[in-house]
Write a structure and sequence with these properties.
The protein is built from 16 helices and 14 strands. The protein is an alpha/beta fold and 427 residues long. The strands form three sheets. A six-stranded parallel sheet has the order 3-2-1-4-5-6, with helices on both faces. Strands 11-10-9-12-13-14 form a six-stranded parallel sheet. Strands 7-8 form a two-stranded parallel ribbon. Bound molecules: uridine-5'-diphosphate-xylopyranose.
C-alpha cells in the first residue's frame, strides 16, 4: 500500500483522500482553510455526498487518513501527491491554473526522489508536460489522472469507476498510479498525458452536447406534435446512442459542464481549430433558459411584471446542494429581470439566493402564487398534494421543465400544465 498526499479538500480531493484510504492506502489530505481542516478532522464534511462522511470517519478511526493545514506534510514523505485544486474559468474562458502552479512551486522542492505528482484537477491538454518542465526534476514524474466524479455519486464513481485513465510520458509512473486503483477492478487506459487530459473535457463536452441536442429536440417535438419521452425512448433502444442523459431540462449546469465546455472551446481557439458543435452546445444552453422563461410568460398570460411565481428546485440537479451555475438560478434571474416576484423551495437550500426568497416548503411557495415552475428534479415534487396547491394559488398554472410531474393527477387537480417536448394536449 502507498503513502499518498492529496492537495485540496474540495469534493474531488476529499473523495479521493477518503476513497484511497478505504482502498488501504495511507493518506494525508491538505487544505488552506483552517476551519475546513478542523471540521474534516472531526469527520464533519459539509458536502452532500452519500457515504463520504462514513468513509472519512472510517479513515480517521483506522488512522489511514488525516487532514492537515498547509501542504508541507502532504508533500514530504509520500510516494504520490494528488493535485485536486480548483481550476476555475478565467476571464478568457480558459482554465485558470494559478492554484496548480502555486502547489507545484512548493512541491518541486518538497517531494522525495521517486515521488509521482498526479494531476487530478481538470486541466487543458498539455498541462502535465508544462508542469514537468516547471518542476524540472528528473527524479520526479508528472502524471495526468482525471476524475469522472458526478456530484451526489462521487463515492460510488470513485470506488466503482467505469474507467481509470492515466496519462504520462514515463510508462512506469503511469503503471504505479494505475496500481493504486487495483481494489476497484476498473478497466484502465494508459496513454500520453495530453490524451488523458483531453479525455476528461471530451467526455464532459460530449455529454453537454447530448443534452443540448435533446433540449433542441424537445422544442421541435412541441412544434410538430411529437412526444420527447417517446422519441428518446426510441433513441435509447439503439445502444450506440446510450440510454442516459436524454432527459430534457432547463439547461445543464453545475461546477463542471459550463466550465469545461468554455475551457475546451478556448483550447480549440488557441489551437486554431474551429469547433462549431461546441459553440452550438453552449449557445443552445443559453437559449434553453430563455425558452423556459418564454414558456412561463405564455403560461401566465403573456406578461411577467408583478407576477408571483413559486420555483420548485434551485440546485443544478437533484441529489446535491450545489447552486454553482445552476440553470434554475439562470432562469430565476431572467424571470426577475421581467419583473416577476419569486419565492423558491429546495430541500437542500435554506438561504435566499439572488432574486429568490427561499421558503420552507412547496406549499408555502404555492400559497397565493400565480404560477409554479419545476426547475430541479427532486423526487418529492412528483408527490405533492395537487388539489391543495391548486386551491391556494391564484391561478393553477405549473411549468415543469423536468417532465417530472404525473400529468394525469396534475391536470385532474385543475392545473394548466406546461412541460417540455410534449404535444400541447399532454402539456
Ligand atoms: C459531470 C459529469 O457527469 C462527471 O462525469 C464529471 O466528472 C463532472 O461533471 P456533475 O457536474 O455532477 O457531473 O453533473 P451531471 O450529473 O453530469 O449533470 C450535469 C447537468 O446536466 C445537470 O444540470 C443536470 O441536471 C443535467 N442533466 C443531466 C439533464 O438536464 N438531463 C439529463 O438527462 C442528465
Amino acid at each position: 500500500m502507498a503513502r499518498i498526499g492529496v492537495i485540496g479538500a474540495g469534493y474531488v480531493g476529499l473523495t479521493t483522500a477518503a476513497c484511497f484510504a478505504r482502498l488501504g492506502h495511507t493518506v494525508v489530505c491538505a487544505d488552506v482553510d483552517e476551519g475546513k481542516v478542523s471540521a474534516l478532522s472531526r469527520a464533519e464534511i459539509g458536502a452532500h455526498e452519500p457515504g463520504l462522511a462514513e468513509l472519512v470517519a472510517e479513515g480517521l478511526r483506522d488512522r489511514r487518513l488525516r487532514f492537515v493545514l498547509g501542504n508541507a506534510e502532504a508533500l514530504s514523505d509520500v510516494d504520490f501527491v494528488f493535485l485536486c485544486v480548483p481550476t476555475p474559468t478565467g476571464e478568457d474562458g480558459a482554465a485558470d491554473l494559478s492554484a496548480v502552479h502555486a502547489v507545484l512551486l512548493e512541491a518541486r522542492d518538497a517531494v522525495r526522489p521517486g515521488c509521482v505528482l498526479v494531476i487530478k484537477s481538470t486541466v487543458p491538454a498539455g498541462t502535465a508536460e508544462l508542469v514537468a518542465q516547471l518542476v524540472g526534476r528528473s527524479d520526479v514524474q508528472v502524471v495526468s489522472n482525471p476524475e469522472f466524479l458526478r456530484e451526489g455519486h462521487a463515492v460510488d464513481d470513485f470506488l466503482r469507476p467505469q474507467r481509470v485513465v492515466v496519462g504520462a510520458e514515463a510508462e512506469e509512473a503511469a503503471r504505479r498510479v494505475v496500481a493504486l486503483y487495483a481494489g476497484t477492478g476498473a478497466p484502465a487506459l494508459v496513454t500520453g498525458s495530453a490524451s488523458a487530459e483531453l479525455v476528461k473535457y471530451a467526455s464532459n463536452c460530449f455529454l453537454a452536447m447530448k443534452l443540448s441536442y435533446v433540449n433542441s429536440l424537445a422544442e421541435l417535438c412541441e412544434r410538430v406534435g411529437a412526444d420527447i419521452g417517446d422519441v428518446t425512448e426510441g433513441m435509447r433502444l439503439d445502444d450506440r446512442i446510450g440510454a442516459a442523459f436524454l432527459e430534457p431540462g432547463p439547461g445543464w449546469g453545475g461546477s463542471c459542464f459550463p466550465k469545461d465546455t468554455r475551457a475546451l472551446l478556448s483550447t480549440a481557439e488557441d489551437a486554431r481549430v474551429d469547433f462549431p458543435l461546441l459553440r452550438a452546445t453552449i449557445g443552445t444552453n443559453g437559449h434553453q433558459a430563455r425558452r423556459v422563461v418564454g414558456l412561463v410568460r405564455d403560461a401566465v398570460g403573456g406578461r411577467l411584471d408583478g407576477v408571483r411565481l413559486g420555483l420548485l428546485g434551485l440546485t443544478f440537479k437533484a441529489g446535491t446542494d450545489d447552486l454553482r451555475d445552476s440553470p434554475a438560478l439562470a432562469v430565476a434571474s431572467l424571470l426577475a429581470e421581467e419583473g416577476a416576484r419569486l419565492t423558491g423551495y429546495d430541500p437542500c437550500v435554506s438561504a435566499d439566493c439572488g432574486p429568490v426568497r427561499v421558503r420552507e416548503s412547496a406549499e408555502a411557495v404555492a400559497d397565493s402564487a400565480d404560477g409554479l415552475v419545476v426547475l430541479t428534479e427532486w423526487p418529492e415534487f412528483a408527490e405533492l398534494d395537487w388539489p391543495h396547491l391548486a386551491a391556494t394559488m391564484t391561478r393553477p398554472v405549473i411549468v415543469d421543465t423536468r417532465n417530472l410531474l404525473p400529468v394525469e393527477k396534475v391536470t385532474e387537480a385543475g392545473f394548466h400544465l406546461v412541460s417540455l417536448g410534449r404535444p400541447t394536449a399532454a402539456r
